[in-house]
From TrEMBL:
Ranges for domain Cation efflux protein transmembrane: 11-218
InterPro entries (UniProt xref): Cation_efflux, Cation_efflux_CTD_sf, Cation_efflux_TM, Cation_efflux_TMD_sf, SLC30A9
Keywords per UniProt: Membrane, Transmembrane, Transmembrane helix, Transport
Pfam families found in the cross-reference section: Cation_efflux (PF01545)
Membrane topology qualifier: Multi-pass membrane protein
Domain of life the protein comes from: Bacteria
UniProt keyword annotation of Transmembrane present: yes
GO cellular component: membrane
Record protein name field: Cation diffusion facilitator family transporter
Subcellular location: Membrane
NCBIfam families: CDF (TIGR01297)
Length: 319
């Protein structure tokens, strides 16, 4: 996995979640808090999620094969999608079930200082992990807002870690609130309500992750800036006079396919056209280094054909 894949953020989140999961489970054993049990399962699921992200990054580095000629870059998208499923099923659904049981059968918390102490520790540890994810994201986010970064990032790991850490911090605050109100009122139902809120939060985050990674799995085009750079690199104004149409597709977070039909001069020789295509490919790779697979088809530009427009039946997606 490349540095842009956020390996540092994933490792930081993994270390924090493993330590927190153990601490939360110990606190649950001493206090009987359902919020603590839900949060320990949440942290354990998060640890597994980070393991999945690291595994996906490792598998994505495999070389292309005859069966998979474009490589395995999309493995990272597949494992990120699995993360959303794990977060939904293991984290969210379990927390809702545990919260329902605690509301139905409430009992007073024992040894309250265990859950409170662990929650404070967990908030500090998760804040460190969240800070690392923010720092890693800022290096590639540019001027995008955080919502745009999560929606448009082609590398799924950092958005996943960011949303997980944000959800974990909010969940910890909810757990602390549930435990605190339960202690103040002597009513264990509040602990169950806090657990229910944690479950709903995790399911909402899981849905956002699933929607975004589904889009990546289906295949997204290059970003607007990359498309503009590619268009500027293709046309040299001499042999390659214009782009008739172009398609881009992410084969992985750091691998882009570019396919375009370009207009050349009608009286150019085959040698001149071939040289111009090779030069255009070199300019594209210089302008957008992740453009690894490039197919340029030379053609003669026709005003009549251009006025008629493209035939949707011959274009993927009907565009």
């Amino acid at each position: 996995m490349s540095a842009s894949g956020g390996t540092k953020a994933i490792v930081a989140a993994l270390a924090a979640n493993l330590a927190i999961a153990v601490a939360k489970f110990v606190a649950f054993l001493f206090s009987g808090s359902s919020s603590m049990l839900a949060e320990s399962v949440h942290s354990l699921a998060d640890s597994g999620n980070q393991g999945l992200l690291l595994l996906g990054g490792k598998k994505a580095q495999r070389a292309a094969t005859p069966q998979h000629p474009f490589g395995y870059g999309r493995e990272r998208y597949i494992y990120a999608f699995l993360v959303s499923i794990v977060l939904f099923s293991v984290g969210g659904m379990f927390a809702i079930y545990e919260g329902y049981e605690k509301i139905k059968h409430p009992h007073e918390l024992e040894h309250w200082y265990w859950p409170v102490g662990v929650l404070v520790f967990a908030i500090i540890a998760e804040s460190f992990s969240f800070r690392t994810a923010i720092k890693e994201s800022n290096s590639i986010r540019g001027k995008q807002s955080w919502s745009d970064f999560v929606r448009r990032a082609k590398a799924p790991e950092l958005p996943v870690v960011l949303l997980e850490d944000l959800g974990a911090l909010i969940g910890l605050v909810l757990a602390l609130g549930g435990v605190g109100i339960a202690l103040a009122t002597g009513n264990g139902v509040w602990d169950g309500i806090g657990t229910l809120c944690i479950g709903v939060l995790l399911i909402l985050i899981a849905i956002v992750l699933a929607v975004e990674t589904k889009s990546l799995l289906l295949g997204e085009s290059a970003g607007i800036e990359e498309v503009q750079k590619i268009e500027g690199a293709i046309v040299d104004g001499d042999t390659v006079t214009r782009i008739i149409h172009m398609r881009t597709l992410h084969l992985g977070p750091e691998e882009l396919l570019v396919a375009a039909k370009v207009a050349v001069q009608h009286d150019d020789t085959a040698t001149e056209v071939a040289s111009a295509i090779n030069a255009a490919e070199a300019r594209i790779r210089e302008a957008v280094p992740i453009a690894r697979v490039i197919y340029l088809e030379p053609d003669i530009y026709s005003e009549t054909a251009a006025a008629a427009g493209e035939n949707p039946a011959k274009s993927p997606g009907g565009h």
